[in-house]
Amino acid sequence: MVYNAYISPLRVIPGPKLCSLSEFSIMIRRPEGRVFEWFYQLHHKYGSVVRVGPKFILFSSKEAVRQILVINDLPKIDSIAGIRADPEIATLFSATDRIFHKQRKRLLSPAFSIKYIASLEPLMQSCINVLVDRIKTISSITSKSDLALKFNENGLPIVNIHQLIQATSLDIIGETAFGESFNLVEKGDHPLPGKVFQELKRRVLYHTFPYMRPFLKKDSWTDEFIQKIIKERRNLNAQGKTREDILQIILDTRDEVTNEGLNEFEIQDQIMEFLIAGSDTSSFSINMALIMLLHHPEKLRKLINELSSAFPNGPQSLNHENLKDLKYLNAVINEILRRFPAAMGGILRQTNSGMMIDGYFVPKDTIVSASIYQVQHSKEIWGVDADEFVPERWIDGDSVKLKRNIFTFGAGSRLCIGNNFAMMEIRLVLASLLLNFEFEMVEKQDLQIVQFITPSLRSKKFDVGIRVRN
Ligand code: HEM
């Protein structure tokens, strides 16, 4: 403690005094899911470099963020091993070893190439069609005798669109990665999301509080669920049949050099990782887009005009090939990704040698956080309206240049492998919803964001009045 507070080279970095002694201040804020908000306040108070733990520093200048993520391409923090299914066995997301990570990424990349992702469009569309049908069924109910439904002052049924979008993202990952939709939108009661959340929580507690380990028994439900899907696919393959999806690519993939594939445990673990990394992140972006558009009706109108002109034959003719180059749609999505990055609290790395970052000497094995939210809201970079929702900046400005200051999908060798997948999903879901339905805001809702690994609304709710668009 004395070393950390008075001798360590980090002692000269500004920050609350208590933070130089322990990470207690972070730990007590974790259960609320609002650590990121405290980090923002600290940057505001202490500037672009802040010490938040004895060996934990936040950096928010764009140069430091680029240095951490791209130029030095620093490794992930050692303690990430604690959230693996087996701390000894790494996955793509949790790998700390550079060579292992490179090999695994090379192995999985074919499942995420632009060409391959494009072939998943019919599978994504089938899940989105279920969503549209479900909302149409709800919106056709006009009788107030349906006690399960509430209606707004214009008589429109109110739906929790947040929950439906989250369910759709999970169904999409199920359909594309696992080979079968979980039918959450239709049924709403599949045990998988709850079991996955429970397992994640178990891993975090197991890692953070070693004395609780005897009480933190693993529930084998998710393992058995995924094993069953793999077994069924292998049986199908044995009959000479195959299915075009990510699971098939993961089963078939072979390392170019060693010709080895993944073993059963690795396949299972990797599929689980895609489920976690790929569902709440995309659905959060779609939800935030809807929330922002409903708060800015003139921008919503602009987007609907663009979509209606691009698809004069209505929503049935929607396709990604024609969607992907729509200027205003992309501007809206870019602006959402800028304003609401999934890694709200920053992207963590660990120094692998002593180095200078933003004018400070940072010793080996220090946790350094790239505060991407601050870069993406910097008034110097984005202007006085940095905190506003202004899709137009992506049309009026040089969007290629602006994108250099966006780190929502990470950067460097750890860039999100699912970014093309996510972009296609966000475009398709958003465009389908807007072309099929009209939404009316319900006033006075709790729209506070929380982050427990992935971000979401604290209330898990965004209620809207809904009507089919004519
Ligand atoms: C809007 C949606 C998404 C956002 C904002 C997002 C964000 C990110 C970020 C910031 C990272 C880097 C984390 C780090 O460097 O520590 C990352 C990595 C990753 N993401 Fe995504 N993600 C999204 C969607 C997806 C989807 C759809 C999938 C898979 C289907 C996915 C799978 C992964 C994986 C496997 C990694 C680890 C890559 C590596 O370490 O090489 N993500 N994501």
From TrEMBL:
Q: Which cofactor does this sequence's record say it needs?
A: heme
Q: Which residues bind heme?
A: C416
Q: Which domain of life is it from?
A: Eukaryota
Listed InterPro entries = Cyt_P450, Cyt_P450_CS, Cyt_P450_E_grp-I, Cyt_P450_sf, Cytochrome_P450_monoxygenase
Q: Which Gene3D superfamilies does the entry mention?
A: Cytochrome P450
Keywords noted in UniProt: Heme, Iron, Metal-binding, Monooxygenase, Oxidoreductase
Q: Which Pfam families match?
A: p450
**Which GO molecular function terms does the record list?**
heme binding; iron ion binding; monooxygenase activity; oxidoreductase activity, acting on paired donors, with incorporation or reduction of molecular oxygen
What family does this chain come from, according to its entry? Belongs to the cytochrome P450 family.
Protein name in the entry: Cytochrome P450
